[in-house]
Write a structure and sequence with these properties.
This protein has 137 residues and is mostly helical. It is 84% helix and 0% strand.
Length: 137
């Protein structure tokens, strides 16, 4: 379970650093306009999601190969499911808005952004719970 624990805390650190530190700060940097910020955000979150998918596969493999109690499988599954929801359901809506802004069109702020952030908060809590739980096994 050491690998699963390590992966969980690496994933937690990446999400926290990108979603709650980098993302809000980039718009405060001098000269960063909305289109530039969105362009940077697209690149950063695409890379983050690829890294997250990799970590999710490693976490799932490590947990399932250990044949743990159902409780371990459930706690490890929650952040994976949240990630899939973000990628499949929320990111496409965000991409449509950013496509319009990057094309020079005016686009109102999307509710999808709030959904993504809300899911990030839940994912961070789920990863923290999973990591702490795995430490106690």
């Amino acid at each position: 379970m050491a690998l699963a624990t390590a992966v969980t805390f690496v994933w937690l650190g990446m999400v926290t650093a990108i979603s709650f530190v980098e993302a809000p700060l980039k718009f405060r940097a001098p000269g960063v306009t909305l289109p530039i910020g969105l362009g940077i955000g697209r690149l950063v979150f695409r890379a983050l999601n690829i890294a997250e998918l990799t970590l999710a596969v490693v976490l799932a493999s490590a947990v399932l190969s250990a044949m743990p109690a159902a409780r371990s499988i459930i706690t490890a599954t929650v952040p994976v499911v949240i990630l899939v929801v973000q990628i499949v359901l929320v990111r496409p809506r965000l991409a449509r808005r950013s496509d319009r802004v990057l094309a020079g069109n005016d686009a109102p702020r999307s509710d999808a952004h709030y959904w993504y952030v809300g899911l990030e908060v839940v994912k961070v809590v789920a990863l923290l719970i999973t990591g702490v739980f795995l430490l106690t096994i």
